[in-house]
Design goal:
Layout lengths: L1 E2 L10 H6 L9 E5 L2 E4 L2 E3 L4 E5 L5 E5 L21 E3 L4 E4 L2 E4 L4 H4 L5 E3 L4 E4 L2 E3 L5 E3 L25 E5 L2 E4 L1 E6 L2 E5 L2 E4 L14 E6 L9 E4 L2 E4 L6 E4 L7 E5 L2 E2 L20 E5 L17 E2 L2 H4 L4 H6 L14
Parallel strand pairs: 1-2, 2-5, 3-6, 4-7, 5-8, 6-9, 7-10, 8-11, 9-12, 10-13, 11-14, 12-15, 13-16, 14-17, 15-18, 16-19, 17-20, 18-21, 19-22, 20-23, 21-24, 23-25, 25-26
Length: 333
């Protein structure tokens, strides 16, 4: 299928193409999307769909919902109705796309998710994810909310499965908790861009963001693994944390990553003090002005030895019970 905004393809919107996939389709469906800006609140709920853009910067899928927006009955959308693109099925792939939430700063709009990725064996290559607060949600949701009866959103009742996702050569931009969730997710050769947040009247903010907010299940050995990534941004020096645990056993590791000066020397935040004892935060081979140093990082994080870092063969991280192996063997270290 070909999607082209100018009418030169089979469809003019991506959702039309998705809706046209036959119910009895058993193999993969590939949808090619020509350059253009497509304002759509997208949803894919069937497996084995692949989206291929003409170019990462020229093929833009976007919407502008946000957490503080209200339904006609006055209820707020909340985080999990704000997404521009929901993928709620396994075996999804995307290449050469920008997926964005253009609602604006979280200071005013609250959370505004670009992608809600709720599927297993998902692969994103050469894609761009742009928003502000809560850009990329790597599902599943945690078992239950901390302070409410329900999270809200279309996947509240979805099973809490162990999901695996690969993001390769991607660009991900945001400010607060802009990569968050419970999946096992590998980020390889990505650029992670921390935005400067709007400064409220009356003074500067000393914290401009948190890159990750993992909610890894206690029994899951792997949460977020960043390998050979670059941490860049326009946030001020020493103003961004590598992460904070959304749930007790949040796990995040940075391997051989270059870190700009916007990264705070202490590296990590506990969110709740008791999570210092349970969160699993690790680094190995960091370089650049924000690189991890034992004398400055929080004592409850860990700087790995070469032997310890060797456990993070990327295909092994993602393999699971079915042996899924989305990376070539030479690319797994």
């Amino acid at each position: 299928m070909i999607v082209a905004k100018d009418g030169s393809g089979d469809f003019t919107t991506v959702q039309e193409a998705v809706n046209a996939i036959p119910e009895n389709a058993s193999g993969w469906t590939v949808i090619h999307i020509k350059n253009g800006e497509y304002k759509e609140k997208l949803q894919i709920l069937r497996p084995r769909v692949k989206l291929v853009g003409e170019s990462a910067e020229g093929t833009v899928l976007y919407f502008d919902d946000y957490a503080k927006k209200t339904f006609p009955d006055g209820r707020e959308y909340g985080t999990f109705n704000s997404q521009s693109f929901l993928i709620g099925a396994d075996d999804f792939e995307a290449e050469n796309l920008t997926i964005s939430n253009t609602a604006g700063s979280g200071d005013k709009m609250g959370q505004a998710v670009a992608v809600y990725a709720d599927g297993d064996r998902m692969v994103f290559r050469n894609c761009r994810f742009t928003a502000s607060q809560d850009t990329l949600f790597t599902a599943p949701l945690p078992p239950k909310p901390v302070e409410r009866a329900a999270f809200g959103g279309p996947r509240d009742e979805a099973p809490r499965r162990k999901l695996r996702q690969l993001y390769e050569r991607c660009y991900i931009a945001g400010d607060v908790d802009f990569i968050f969730g419970s999946a096992t997710a590998v980020f390889k050769d990505c650029e992670i861009f921390s935005k400067k947040r709007l400064v409220p009247e009356g003074g500067e903010k000393t914290i401009h963001g948190y890159i990750t907010a993992a909610s890894t299940d206690e029994e899951n050995p792997y949460g977020y693994v960043f390998a050979n990534c670059r941490l860049t941004g326009d946030a001020p020096e020493n103003s961004v944390y590598l992460g904070r645990p959304w749930r007790d056993y949040g796990h995040t590791v940075f391997l051989n990553c270059w870190m700009g000066g916007h990264i705070k020397p202490e590296g990590w935040h506990y969110w709740k003090p008791e999570r210092e004892k349970t969160a699993r935060y690790e680094e190995f081979g960091s370089t650049g002005p924000g690189a991890g140093r034992r004398e400055s990082r929080v004592p409850w994080s860990k700087l790995l030895t070469a032997e310890e870092a060797g456990q993070y063969d990327l295909n092994r991280v993602l393999s699971g019970q079915d042996g899924w192996s989305p990376l070539k063997e030479a690319e797994t270290k």
